[in-house]
Each structure stands twice: as C-alpha cells, then as structure tokens.
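Explain my protein.
***
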Amino acid sequence: MEEQEEKQKNCCCHGKKTKQRSEEEYKKLINRLNRIEGQIRGIKGMVEKSAYCPDILIQVAAANAALNAFTKELLANHIKTCVANDIREGNDETIDELVSVLQKLMK
C-alpha cells in the first residue's frame, strides 16, 4: 500500500496537469536547465563579441545536445511514472497523449 501511495504522489494529476516531483528529480532537472541557461548566455556573449561563426555554431550544437538530454530524461521519467501508472489504472487516453507528444518531439 505504501508503494502505491508513493507512485500516486509522484504521478501526474491530469485534472490539473501538474506533477509532484521527488526532490532528487527536481534538483537534477533544475541543474540541467541551469547549465543550459549558462550555455545560452555564453552563446549570446559570443555573438556580442563578434566571435567566429563556426565557434558559435559548435556551442549551439552543444546547447542543442544538452536540451535533447534534458528532454530524454524528462520523457523517460514521465513514461516510468505518469504513463505507467495511468495504464495500470486503465486510463488509456494517456497513451494517445504520449503518442501526440512524441510526434511533436520528432518534427
């Protein structure tokens, strides 16, 4: 019963479209976003200082890779918690939502 309550606590609330994240998950995501934000500020600084285009492009590629890693981590966690729990509870509309999100991510 306690395990079920923990899964419920860390699952999406479809009525409110929110999710309670564990402290560890929250910190990991925020740390990644802070690093990405720093990369973007660095790219802006390079443009402001008239850096060489290929140097800027390499940094943009690194920022894109960091955003992709953030997306993968968030998506994996969503599938492992919200989607899995909803499927167990018979809420199959979550599958349609996931398919829609994946289609948007793959554009």
